[in-house]
Write a structure and sequence with these properties.
47% of the residues are buried. With 258 residues, this protein is mainly α. The protein is built from eleven helices and no strands. It is globular, with a radius of gyration of 17 Å.
């Protein structure tokens, strides 16, 4: 498994740029697509470094997404998720402390949850069901699952976006609401990752080399962000909703097969 040398090879840069471009697009046009970047980063590093190398790329993209679309956020949708997400964070930290770097079981668990939510929302879309209001139980389940999956694998996108889509959020509201959610949780992960790297077995989440590689990827993130910003107003609402579900399902299957 590759751990970054002083000079990055062409293949490493190509893979990294592709992943960063996908992250940028996912934040401004195609929610859920960002999970496709995780398998690409996993081609370069292993264990905790997969989460660690992905996180700075996500935060850069989140800052721009909030700056552009934050005014569309639906705060009343986010408030019921706060406490469940904190609980999910705690479960994720405990997972890393006990298990170490994670493994195939985690990928399978995330994939099954995502596929179940995609199936439910697909049925609603096909049957033209009206958007439903969230209940405390649903918000608790989604928030806890989203908090756990984002902490251990940066993989909350399909869970959270499918939930927002089921509430009937427009594409602008979904982008703005999810942007605020992800920026908040991703920034909150940084100090916890650092502490876990210091205090538990399993290695560090961040290294000097990985952070330097993140800096090299910033231009690719920006290209993806601006491309997505151009694309979003041109995507019909139904196409947007279907793309969220399709990408979530593809990412879930990819996790199962990884």
């Amino acid at each position: 498994m590759f751990y970054f040398d002083v000079l990055f090879t062409t293949s490493h840069l190509f893979i990294g740029f592709a992943a960063a471009l996908i992250v940028g697009l996912s934040k401004t046009a195609i929610p859920g697509g960002g999970l496709l970047a995780t398998p690409l980063f996993a081609m370069l590093v292993s264990g905790r470094l997969i989460s660690g190398i992905t996180l700075p790329v996500l935060i850069v993209a989140d800052v721009f997404a909030v700056r552009w679309y934050g005014k569309h956020r639906r705060s009343e949708v986010l408030r019921p998720l706060v406490l469940p997400v904190v609980i999910g964070f705690g479960a994720g930290a405990l997972f890393f402390a006990v298990v170490g770097s994670g493994g195939r079981l985690l990928n399978a668990l995330i994939a099954v949850i995502v596929l179940l939510m995609v199936a439910l929302q697909s049925w609603r879309l096909i049957s033209a069901s009206e958007p439903v209001e969230s209940t405390p139980a649903v918000a608790a389940a989604v928030g806890t699952t989203g908090g756990f999956t984002t902490f251990v694998a940066n993989a909350a996108g399909p869970v959270i976006n499918t939930y927002f889509s089921g509430l009937g959020l427009s594409k602008m509201d979904l982008i703005g609401t999810s942007a605020m959610f992800y920026l908040t949780v991703n920034v909150a992960k940084v100090p916890v990752y650092v502490l876990l790297g210091w205090l538990t077995d399993g290695g560090s989440f961040f290294t000097f080399e990985s952070l330097r590689f993140n800096l090299v990827l910033v231009p690719a993130v920006l290209v993806g962000l601006f491309a997505g910003r151009w694309l979003l107003p041109r995507i019909p609402q139904r196409v947007f909703s279907i793309s969220v579900l399709v990408l979530a399902a593809v990412a879930a299957v990819r996790l199962l097969l990884s």
